[in-house]
Amino acid sequence: MSALTFTGARVVDPASGRDERANVAIDGELVVAVGTESRGMRVEADGLVLAPGLVDLHVHLREPGGEDAETVATGTAAAAAGGFTAVCPMANTDPVADHAGVVEQVLGLARVAGHADVFPVGAVTRGLAGEDLAELGAMAAVGVRCFSDDGRPVRSARVMRRALEYCRTWDAIVSNHAEEASLTDGAQMNEGELSGLLGLAGWPHEAEEVMVARDLILAHGLGARVHVPHVSTAGTVALVRDAKARGTRVTAEAAPHHFTLTESRVRDFDPVHKVNPPLRGKADVEAIREGLADGTIDAIATDHAPHPPETKEREWTHAPCGMLGLETALGLACTELVGAGVLDLPRAVAALSTAPARSRDVAGHGGPIEPGAPANLVLFDPSARWTVDPGRLHSRSRNTPYAGRTLTGRVVHTLLRGRFTCRDGALVEVARDPS
Amino acid sequence: MLGPHLLGVEGLTPDDITTVLDTAAGFRDVALRPIKKVPTLRGRTVCNLFYEDSTRTRLSFELAAKRLSADTLTFSAGGSSVSKGESLKDTALTLQAMGVDAIVIRHSASGAAHQLTRWVGAHVLNAGDGGHQHPTQALLDLFTIRDHLGRIEGLRVAVVGDVVHSRVARSLVQGLVTMGAQVDVVAPPTLLPPAVGAWGVSVGHDVDAVLPKSDVLYLLRVQRERMGQQFVPSVREYARLWGVDRDRLAHLPAGAIVLHPGPLNRGVELTADVADAPSSLVTEQVTNGIAVRMACLYLLVGGGADR
To answer: Does the beta carbon of A197 lie under 8 angstroms from any beta carbon of chain B?
Structure first.
């Protein structure tokens, strides 16, 4: 591959603290120069932000088993179009990623597709049943750094404590779907005045907080690493903030919909707004924004959850939870956080790339952008406005709650190890050797 | 302005409600005629789409449509048909293709009637959706109250029982508040919806405290299966603390009336002698239900309400 230089971009690299106009030269898979130098072909990037490629700690690629909703190829295509160079697919596939075989299958499918690196999350327990530990060591041996039964909580405190303890072998991370299930039986939406009016069973914020509190206490006592997924309540933000102050080894993520949308969206009973944890109230949205601003919440993670239309176009109570996220995350962060003055641009880039990479050991991503580093990069126009059109998304599914919404901040180029996966806003198809 | 759909009581104005009640008063006389039929909806088709077991509401709507001379279709499916059979959306599209003018839907899922309006052009009448709304029940209750007490505004109405699971309670309370009644909601805290105080009602847990000042006592059904879900310890305890027996009934002011949406759980929310007491209007509610549903069908389908 020949050399290439992006000229005149605003280089925002939280890992090195850089935020300045500079040229970034790439040769082969690596960044070779940052500064005034120019090598090879010049690509005009005036007005664009050049940042480390985005890292999503929480996606559902659905393969194997859910290929009608998404595949590794379509999901990572959506990732590339959304500016992501690394995604962490959850283990709730069919079969479940509770052993090395499924992990390797997903890794292999991602290598073939070539749109983004995947860092699969392994199941904590066999079959996500919450009872017997999955083959954590075998999965760690093929590169898994984080374990989660996402979608289902590890209900037993004993199993959770054992998992945290056992994972210390590799200093790996356990992330528990924070839901005390005995409090959410049949739950359909956030519990509150609106659930009372709509006659939908409520998902109380305490159900999340009770579980997070338990896990923080367990992790603290063991000195183990714990990651809190999709923080949705003000109480959880406070719990994580306190735990960090006490020195608990905790990291946390929040989803764009939890800093953008409120439960009022449920009013028209369109299941595109049904998600777990549910959309909450205004005060929760504010608390999550504060948590992102003060660093309590490390990462923005999309919880990208594709579902085919026939499962979402059903009665609210029968529809599955989840919404797409990969192709709208950057735009929502720019619009809802940077545009609203919650985060400055470098902090937003940190929350979308550097911090998630560090918090979950996503190697080779999140910067720094410096000579010798892999050229995993995104270039985006922070002031370009675009309208979300579900028909133009790269995901196999269409369940975005942002259809028709105009966002500010659009991906222009994404590069994975020096190769364009998205160029001038269009996905670049690459055929790679399955080996 | 009423229509094009009747999905809930929320959003109806006092004028809307008064229009329905006045129209129903006219239709009630139809039942007294030898030929209980008017030609108002001749040539129109009303489909009853019942995804949940129902006897009185389904029969009442069917009779209402027939007395208006509409052609009626009734589709009864168990709640489980959703998982194995055709989706609600596909059924809706089928009915749309058949050209029905109105769909009356009962469904165990809150919001099903709302969703239906996205898929069909026909008028949709909600005959009960999950724990959400049951507008025609509330309207027939308002009709019955007004019929007996001459007004709704200023009345004091106690609504007692399983409010959290009750679509009837939501619709009725909204209707009463809209019409200017003072509502006392009484139940154990476990059977009250979250933030029920925001409904514009007084909330309490002591049924004896409200009885002497109530013009209307509205008892809600308490399903026995709630007992196993730790909402209350037992049927017996519920009946003792919140159920209404002859002794409690005696504390109502003279002229006060007792309503219940049915089906009755005799021995739980009320004793048999209360159900059959002269102040109990349970069967009259059923009779009025037909006239109120005729009014709703007429106003939406035949009355030129905008589509």
So the answer is: yes
- Is residue B163 predicted with pLDDT exceeding 50? yes
Average pLDDT over residues A99-106: 98
Q: Does the annotation mark A19 as catalytic?
A: no
Q: Is the dihedral of CA A270, A272, A278, A283 positive or negative?
A: negative
Contact: A192, B132; criterion CB under 8 Å: no
Buried b (16+ CB within 10 A) or exposed e, B122-148: bbbbbbbbbbbbbbbbbbbbbbbbbbb
Tell me if B56 is assigned to some domain. yes
| Residues A136-164: tens digit of each pLDDT | 999 999 999 999 999 999 999 999 999 99
The model scores a pTM over 0.90: yes
Q: Summarize pLDDT for A56-65 with one digit per residue, the tens.
A: 999 999 999 9
Note whether residue B158 is domain-resident: yes
Tell whether A247 is covered by a domain.
Answer: yes
Asked if A188 lies within 8 A of B114 by C-beta distance, the reply is no
- Residue B209 domain boundaries: 135-285
Mean pLDDT of all residues in B273-296? 96
Domain count, chain A: 2
Domain presence at residue A282:
yes
Residues B160 and B245 in one domain: yes
Give, to the nearest 10 degrees, the angle between helix B14-28 and helix B282-297: 110
Q: How many domains does chain B have?
A: 2
Please check whether residue B196 touches A, CB under 8 A.
yes
Distance CA A256, CA B267 (A): 51
Quick check: is B2 in a domain?
Answer: no
Whether residue B40 is contained in a domain is answered as yes
Sort strands A18-27 and A30-35 into parallel, antiparallel or unpaired: antiparallel
Q: Is the pLDDT of residue A54 over 60?
A: yes
B217 interfaces chain A, CB cutoff of 8 Å: no
Look up the ipTM and state it. Answer: 0.93
Give yes or no for residue B125 having a pLDDT over 90: yes
| Chain B residue with Cα closest to A196 | B193
Query: What's the pLDDT tens digit per position in A28-50?
Result: 999 999 999 999 999 999 999 99
Alpha carbon of residue A172 to chain centroid:
18
Both B158 and B127 in one domain: the answer is no
